[in-house]
Design a protein that fits this description.
Elements lengths: L2 H11 L1 H25 L2 H4 L5 H31 L2 H9 L4 H42 L11 H26 L4 H5 L13 H20 L4 H34 L1 H4 L4 H50 L4 E4 L6 H17 L4 E11 L8 E5 H11 L10 E6 L11 H5 L3 E2 L5 E9 L9 E4 L1 H4 L7 E10 L4 H14 L4 E3 H39 L2 H12 L5 H38 L4 H34 L1
Parallel strand pairs: 3-7, 4-6
Antiparallel strand pairs: 1-8, 1-9, 2-3, 2-8, 4-7, 5-6
Helix pairs in contact: 1-6, 2-4, 2-6, 2-7, 2-18, 4-7, 4-18, 6-7, 9-10, 9-20, 10-12, 10-20, 12-18, 12-20, 12-21, 13-17, 17-18, 18-21, 19-21, 20-21
Length: about 625
């Protein structure tokens, strides 16, 4: 048997440990190939797709490639850690350090080659389905038809073979520093039970409380300034949570005889405490990676929802048109006729209203304050089905926009504190404030009776505002009309449906690609847990085999392994879900927009995926233990 055959057989004999490394690498290659398939698609290279989509895919490919390097490196390190004794035995049989390093190098190159080829082939199998999904998400005008991506195949193959080559060289460099005695006793050396410092444990709790407290209390633009300090504090608190606070809690539970001596808890806590030093680092890494995935996808999804829903909320009318002070009547009439002609051309049924926006001088604002007649306001309110306003003869109603962005103060508060003097000497007192989007005035305005409106005098400045409310069920037509209107009457006229369409078209690629990156991060985090679990499989077989001789039943074994595996899989994920929930709550405070629905959907989806992954891994893990023991 040649040395190459020996290395090849080693891969086959250790396929149980290699399978997670192989599948994770294969998935990473497949995702990278998918992006390459997009980037080199004829529709994209033809220049018919927005450049932002191409840029987003290029950035995503770079992120995936860089992350793949560290992920594959960690995977190989975890695998080699479990083979210390094997390497030591080979050295006892006469193998040199150079041969051991060469064997590890050849094994990794072989797995890398198979994962790269398999990832490309799997990507080709699912490429049409992915292209169909992307075609709908990206909102492209042309079909993303299937094609043979020779350039994408070449780029993917070369990129990942270079990656695996560097990883293999790095792993071989690490192996040369191992001593024979360390290799022989690698799986028997106890790392000892970690000691918890009570002050560091308390400090961990304080850091997390402070980080969460700041993130949940700051609002508006202050969220941006608090972001970096909060991230640093929470990361440090998370590390101490797993390395100190969790150890301290386990020690306390072990000291409680009622809990520790209850049924099989002794085996659970003793084993957990013994391994905590290694698990703590894995927990920390998985928690941070998962938090990045949750926060990134939640932020992208929430931001898109904020833009689209905010656009609809701030613009209750289908189409709007503003006239400027220097516009002549002829210009206004021509542009209004153009808008109406487009609506007629698309056979769009709508109702039109207009209002004069008159601003009157104020000692508090140089640009003046907007006053609106109650009758004009009510005409617009009826158009969208909102409540009508009827102020008294001696009062004024203050109206505020409910969709303000990053505002530190409310400018309408000043209106509530001011009295209004009319030309006839009467004074009006603001008595109430309402929030509505009927008129586009972010600084707030007054609604007064028609009679009092006539006593305001000459306005400081004025403009005309026209709106069209389209009947329901004509969204596609309105989008087409909105595109033409934006070309014919730019800046002054807009269609909310067309604006939402443009947001989705621009933001769709970012969300689509961010989703894939988040999935790569999340799958990688799950793979870390898999490696951590299966690296202790042989120890578990020996330990539970010994306990089984003393009467441990299969049901008790299953119960212990379920708890042990559940703690391994869900401890970091629960922490990551809490981190993600706090981050998305802070984002909602930043934009003053409720993202509860979006956050629940994103975090709930990942939690469900983790539960399914846990059930699958636990099933095979318990099966292997039972097969080895009973």
């Amino acid at each position: 048997m040649t040395f190459r055959q020996f290395a090849f057989n080693n891969v086959l004999r250790n396929k149980r440990l290699y399978v997670a490394y192989f599948l994770s690498s294969l998935f990473t290659v497949m995702v990278f190939f998918t992006f390459a398939n997009f980037a080199f698609h004829p529709v994209f290279t033809g220049g018919t797709v927005d450049s932002k989509a191409l840029f987003s895919m290029a950035v995503a490919g770079g992120i995936i490639y860089i992350f793949s390097f560290f992920f594959v490196l960690y995977s190989m390190s975890s695998f080699l850690q479990s083979r210390k004794k094997e390497f030591g035995l080979l050295m006892l049989q006469g193998a040199s350090t150079t041969q051991i390093r060469l064997m590890a190098f050849m094994e990794n190159i072989l797995v890398g080659f198979l994962a790269t080829v398999g990832g490309i082939l799997l990507g080709l199998v699912f490429s049409k389905a992915v292209l169909l999904i992307a075609e709908n998400v990206l909102i492209v005008n042309e079909s993303l038809n299937f094609y043979f991506p020779s350039l994408a195949i070449g780029v993917t193959f070369i990129s990942f073979m270079v990656l695996f080559l560097f990883i293999s060289m790095f792993v071989a460099f690490i192996l040369r520093t191992k001593k024979l005695i360390d290799l022989i006793k690698g799986d028997k050396q106890s790392k000892g039970e970690p000691k918890a410092n009570i002050f560091l444990a308390i400090f961990a709790a304080l850091l997390l409380i402070i980080g969460y407290g700041v993130a949940l209390t700051v609002k508006g633009a202050l969220v941006v300034y608090a972001m970096i300090p909060v991230i640093v504090v929470v990361i440090l608190g998370t590390y101490l949570l797993f390395t100190q606070l969790s150890v301290y809690i386990i020690r306390k539970l072990k000291g409680n005889r009622t809990i520790f001596w209850r049924k099989t808890n002794m085996l659970l806590f003793s084993d957990l405490s013994f391994r905590m030093k290694d698990n703590a680092r894995t927990f920390f890494m998985v928690a941070i990676i998962s938090t990045v995935a949750f926060s990134a996808i939640g932020t992208l999804f929430g931001f898109q929802s904020y833009l689209t829903k905010g656009m609809v909320q701030a613009n209750p009318f289908s189409i709007t048109y503003f006239s400027y002070a220097d516009d002549t009547d002829k210009d206004i009439n021509n542009e209004l006729n153009q808008i109406q002609a487009i609506l007629n051309e698309k056979d769009i049924h709508s109702e039109m209203k207009q209002i004069a926006l008159n601003y009157y001088s104020s000692p508090y604002r140089d640009e003046g304050v907007l006053f609106v007649k109650a009758s004009d306001y009510n005409n617009f309110a009826r158009l969208v089905g909102e409540k009508e306003i009827h102020p008294g003869e001696k009062e004024a109603i203050v109206v505020d926009q409910s969709s303000k962005i990053l505002s530190y103060s409310n400018p309408s508060d000043q209106l509530m504190e001011s009295t209004i003097k009319l030309e006839n000497g009467a004074e009006l007192t603001p008595t109430a404030k309402i929030e509505t989007e009927i008129l586009p005035e972010f600084n707030g305005y007054y609604i007064i009776t028609d009679n009092n409106y006539e006593q305001l005098g000459s306005p400081l400045r004025s403009s005309m505002y026209y709106v069209w409310q389209v009947d329901k069920g004509q969204t596609d037509k309105v989008v087409e009309a909105g595109e033409k209107i934006s070309e014919k009457v730019p800046y002054k006229a807009q269609s909310v449906d067309y604006n939402v369409y443009q947001i989705n078209k621009t933001f769709g690629p970012i969300l689509f690609i961010g989703l894939f990156i988040g999935i790569v991060f999340f799958v990688s985090a799950g793979s870390f847990l898999y490696f951590r679990l299966y690296s202790d499989l042989e120890d578990d077989k020996r330990k539970f085999g010994s306990v089984a001789k003393m009467g441990l039943t299969q049901n008790e074994l299953k119960k212990i392994v379920n708890r042990q595996t559940a703690l391994l899989f869900f401890a970091p994920i629960i922490v990551a879900l809490i981190h993600g929930a706090v981050a998305l709550t802070a984002l909602s405070h930043m934009f003053d927009f409720n993202l509860m629905k979006e956050a629940t959907f994103v975090l709930g989806s990942f939690a469900l995926i983790q539960i399914i992954y846990f059930l699958i891994v636990r099933l095979f893990y318990v099966k292997q233990l039972k097969h080895a023991i009973y």
